Amino acid sequence: MSLVGRDLVSVLDFGREELERIFRTADSMQRFTRKCRSQLKNYVMATIFFEPSTRTRLSFETSMHRLGGSVIGFAESGVSSVAKGETLADTIRMVESYSDVIVLRHKVEGSARFAAEISGVPVLNGGDGSQHHPSQTLTDLFTIRKEFGEIDGRNILLMGDLQHTRSASSLAYGLGHYKAITLSLVSPPNLGMRPEVTDYLENRDVKYQEGQDPADFIGEADVIYVTRLQKERFPDPKKAEALKGSYILTRELLKRAPKHAIVMHHLPRIEEIPLEVDYTPNARYFQQAANGVPVRMAFLYLSVYHSKYHPVKQREPTLRSSDTRRCANSNCISNQPREPILPMLKEVMSKGERVLQCQYCGRYTKE
Ligand code: ASP
């Protein structure tokens, strides 16, 4: 399927062939990350970031500049009309008329899916809530592919706060496209991968194991992917404080990994990777962050070049009287009372039980 005009909401929306096409384009973009090209001359990208960001926003902006395009936007909600009470829907309706592509970061889960529904220009998800971060995942998969030649057959240790880290769940979704993956999910108690993600892995026949001590799994790992404790997503900050330092990839621990293993991190790292690891031949997190530019250049080029504005008829939400079910996640876009949106729930099976899965945030709700 053509990638022209496509949104980037979740890696689940792409097939393996499409991912490969993005990576091949990123391969060729690598030569141009320090030069200016002109394919996207006269195109405007809007970056609207309602949460802090360094890498995602700056690498998207660099990518657009390198392709000859221009950039508008804001990096915190306090400087936009959201501070005056504007809804996301109204913001998107404005910004789509000023730009050819929108990059959105938002703390509410499912906001990128909703924005893509009401926008006439492609919406690229720069991270929404703790669920999806597709441009990070494209960067991560590209990094693994570049290091090992292929992604199939890799043994990947994913460690840290797997419950709240969107880069981690998004990467798990991405790995579901590949064959013979072994995934070790290591986290402190109660911070494990959420059930909708492990159900997905089971449905895709991805072999995964769960544990609490990275030392049990590191000896087999090709990739050690460390994540940050996402303290801002803990309902009780004291609980995050109590977990500080509960997992650290020390140089000692790294010695137990195969020589060829690479260490990745979505960054920012706080204390989970000490500085001493930076000087080992295994560290790849800065290279990984650098790879964000050719990958984002590739997606922007494939999606935006020659894309047309498609006016979207305003959907008027009318609740079906028989359907009063709502998503149980209060941080889901479908539960934001001022947004013009209806809940969208689908029945699925989870561990032998029938549950409702929200089509915006992906979370389960018990019937
Ligand atoms: N920058 C990444 C994100 O926004 C990772 C992080 O914040 O830990 O998801």
3D architecture notes:
The protein is globular. The two termini are 36 Å apart. The mean pLDDT is 93. With 367 residues, it is an alpha/beta fold. The chain is 30% helix and 17% strand. It has 3 domains: 137 residues, 3-Layer(aba) Sandwich (Rossmann fold); 130 residues, Aspartate/ornithine carbamoyltransferase (Rossmann fold, 3-Layer(aba) Sandwich), CATH 3.40.50; 51 residues, SH3 type barrels, CATH 2.30.30. Helix 1 packs across helix 10, helix 5 packs across helix 6 and helix 5 packs across helix 10. A 5-stranded parallel sheet has the order 7-6-5-8-9. The chain binds aspartic acid. Aspartic acid binds next to helix 6.
Specify the CATH class of the largest domain: Alpha Beta
Outline the low-pLDDT stretches: none
**Attached small molecules:** aspartic acid
The first-to-last residue Cα distance is 36 Å
Characterize the quaternary organization of these chains.
Answer: single chain
Helix-residue proportion: 25-40%
Count every helix, treating DSSP H or I runs of 4 or more residues as helices.
10
Mean pLDDT score: 93
Give a short overview:
The chain has 367 residues and is α/β, with parallel strands linked by helices. The chain is built from ten helices and twelve strands. Aspartic acid binds at residues 127, 133, 166-167, 228, 266.
Keywords:
367 residues; Rossmann fold; 30% helix; SH3 type barrels; 3 domains; alpha/beta
Strand and helix layout:
Layout: H1 16-29, E1 44-49, H2 55-66, E2 70-74, H3 88-98, E3 101-106, H4 111-118, E4 123-128, H5 134-148, E5 155-159, H6 166-175, E6 182-186, H7 195-203, E7 207-211, E8 223-226, H8 237-243, H9 251-254, E9 262-265, H10 285-304, E10 345-350, E11 353-358, E12 364-366
Parallel strand pairs: 1-2, 1-3, 3-4, 5-6, 5-8, 6-7, 8-9
Antiparallel strand pairs: 10-11, 11-12
Helix pairs in contact: 1-10, 2-10, 3-4, 5-6, 5-10
Bound molecules: aspartic acid (ASP).
